[in-house]
Design a protein that fits this description.
By secondary structure, the protein is of the alpha/beta class. Helices cover 47% and strands 10% of the residues. The strands form 2 sheets. Strands 1-8-5-4-2-3 form a 6-stranded parallel β-sheet, sandwiched between helices. Bound molecules: nicotinamide-adenine-dinucleotide and fe (ii) ion. The site of nicotinamide-adenine-dinucleotide (NAD) has 32 residues, from α4, β6, α5 and α9.
C-alpha cells in the first residue's frame, strides 16, 4: 500500500540539446556564457577519434583555449581524478566538458567536484553522507555522451574506484548535474558493435531495474518503461546495422535510464559491480551477463510489473518467464556471452564476489531483499 501522506522528492534533470548535429552548438554556448578556457576530459581511445579532433578544432577555431585530459583507466580510479584536477588548476581553466562514455564523464564530474572541495575525494562518498560537504561552487560543467549506456550525462554522481582495492565509490551531489548536455547521436555512429551492445545492455538494465525498484515513483516508472520499449526495438539494429534512427533511440533511451534510476537500481548492478572491481570487466558487459539471472530472481511476486515489461517488449507471452528468455535471446543476438564462465569467472571467485555484491550500494533498492546466500546462488547459476 502506498502511503500518500509521505512527502517524496523527485528530481528531474537539466537542459538537454538532443539530436544529430547538436554538438555544433557547443562553441556558441561557450561564447554565450563567457567561457574561454576549456578542459576537455575524455579517455585515451576517444581522444584519438576524428569526431573528438573535430570538437577540439571547432573550439580552437573560435579562439577558445583547449586543454585535453585523457589519462584515465577503463574503470576510473581516484588518482585519475587527482591528476585531472591538477591540470585544471595549473592551466587555469574556466570550465569542464566530459566527452566520452560513462568513464570519461564520471572522471570529468569528479574533477569538477575536486576543484573547490579539498577533503579526501572519498569523504564525498554518498554512502557515508558525503554530499553534506559539497557546499562550494562547482566549475561550469558540460557533458557530451559518445556511448549510449550509462546516462552519466544526466547523472549527479560519479563512480570512481579506489586505486588499491578497486572498490567502486559513489560521489554524489545535485550540484554535479551538468549545466547542459549535448547529446548528439552522430558521435556514436562509429561505436564498435561490442561496445554498442554492452553499453546498450547497461541502459536496458537501468530502465528495467528502475521500473521494478522499491518505492512509489510513477514518473521514473513511466520513463523506464518507455526506455525499455525503445531499447528493445533498436538495440539489435544499433549493434548490427547502425543507422541514425537506431543510434538516436539508443541515445535517448540510455539517458532516460539514468533519469529513471533516480528511483534506484537493484540486484543486477550489485552482481555487476564486483566483476569490474575484481576482474576489470566492462560495466555494461557485466550487467548484460547478469541481467537475465537477476530478473529471473525478481520474477516471483512481481507478476504485474513483468507483464508490463513484456508488453513494452511486445512479447507474445506476457510473463516474467518470457521476459527472462527474451533477455537471453537478446544477448545471443548481440553476440554477448550468457555465462560468467565466458568472461573469466571461475568457482574460486564466487565467495569474494558474493561478499562484494552484498556490500554493494544498489541492492537495497531491489524490490525484494537479497541475501549474501542469494548472491552466491545467482553467481553459481550464471557460471
Ligand atoms: N555516473 C553514473 O551514473 C554511472 C552509471 C553507470 C555506470 N557508470 C560508470 O560508467 C563507466 C562505463 O561507461 P561506458 O559503459 O560508457 O563505457 P566507457 O566509458 O568505458 O566506454 C567504453 C569504450 O568505448 C570507447 N568509446 C566511447 N565512445 C566511443 C565512440 N563514439 N566511438 C568509438 N569508441 C568509443 C571508449 O574509449 C571505451 O573504450 C563505468 O566506470 C561505470 O562505473 C556511471
Ligand atoms: Fe549501469
Amino acid at each position: 500500500m502506498t502511503d500518500f501522506n509521505t512527502i517524496r522528492q523527485y528530481n528531474f534533470p537539466t537542459t538537454i540539446r538532443f539530436g544529430a548535429g547538436a554538438i555544433k552548438e557547443l562553441p556558441d554556448h561557450l561564447a554565450a556564457n563567457g567561457l574561454k578556457r576549456v578542459l576537455l576530459v575524455t579517455d585515451p581511445v576517444v581522444s584519438d577519434l576524428d569526431f573528438f579532433k573535430g570538437i577540439k578544432s571547432s573550439l580552437t577555431n573560435r579562439s577558445v583555449s583547449v586543454e585535453v585530459f585523457s589519462e584515465i583507466h577503463k574503470n576510473p580510479v581516484k588518482s585519475d581524478v587527482l591528476k585531472g584536477s591538477v591540470v585544471f588548476k595549473q592551466t587555469a581553466r574556466d570550465c569542464i566538458i566530459g566527452v566520452g562514455g560513462g568513464a570519461a564523464m564520471d572522471v570529468a564530474r569528479a574533477i569538477a567536484l575536486s576543484i573547490n572541495h579539498h577533503r579526501d575525494l572519498f569523504d564525498y562518498d554518498d554512502l557515508i553522507g558525503g554530499d553534506q560537504y559539497v557546499t562550494e561552487a562547482v566549475p561550469y560543467f558540460i557533458t557530451v555522451p559518445t556511448t549510449s549506456g550509462t546516462g552519466s550525462e544526466v547523472g549527479r554522481s560519479a563512480i570512481i574506484s579506489e586505486d588499491d582495492t578497486h572498490r567502486k565509490r559513489i560521489l554524489f551531489s545535485p550540484k554535479l548535474l551538468a549545466k547542459i548536455v549535448f547529446a548528439d547521436p552522430l558521435l556514436t555512429m562509429e561505436l564498435p558493435s561490442f561496445v554498442t551492445a554492452a553499453t546498450g545492455m547497461d541502459a536496458l538494465t537501468h530502465n528495467m531495474e528502475a521500473f521494478i525498484a522499491k518505492g512509489f515513483h510513477p514518473m521514473a516508472d513511466g520513463i523506464g518503461l518507455e526506455g525499455i520499449r525503445l531499447i528493445n526495438e533498436s538495440i539489435a539494429a544499433a549493434t548490427n546495422q547502425p543507422d541514425l534512427e537506431s543510434r538516436s533511440k539508443m541515445m535517448i533511451a540510455s539517458l532516460m535510464g539514468a533519469v529513471a534510476f533516480q528511483k534506484g537500481l537493484g540486484v543486477v548492478h550489485s552482481l555487476a559491480h564486483p566483476l569490474s572491481s575484481l576482474l576489470d570487466t566492462h560495466h555494461g558487459l557485466a550487467n548484460a551477463v547478469n541481467l537475465p539471472y537477476g530478473m529471473r530472481f525478481n520474477t516471483p511476486g512481481l507478476e504485474a510489473q513483468f507483464t508490463r515489461i513484456a508488453r513494452a517488449m511486445e512479447l507474445k507471452e506476457e510473463t516474467g518467464n518470457a521476459v527472462v528468455n527474451h533477455l537471453f535471446a537478446i544477448n545471443n543476438q548481440l553476440g554477448l556471452p550468457t555465462t560468467l564462465g565466458a568472461i573469466g569467472v571461475n568457482a574460486e571467485h564466487i565467495e569474494t564476489l558474493a561478499d562484494l555484491a552484498f556490500a554493494d550500494f544498489c541492492h537495497p533498492n531491489n524490490p525484494k531483499p537479497v541475501t549474501r546466500e542469494d548472491f552466491k546462488k545467482l553467481y553459481t547459476e550464471a557460471l
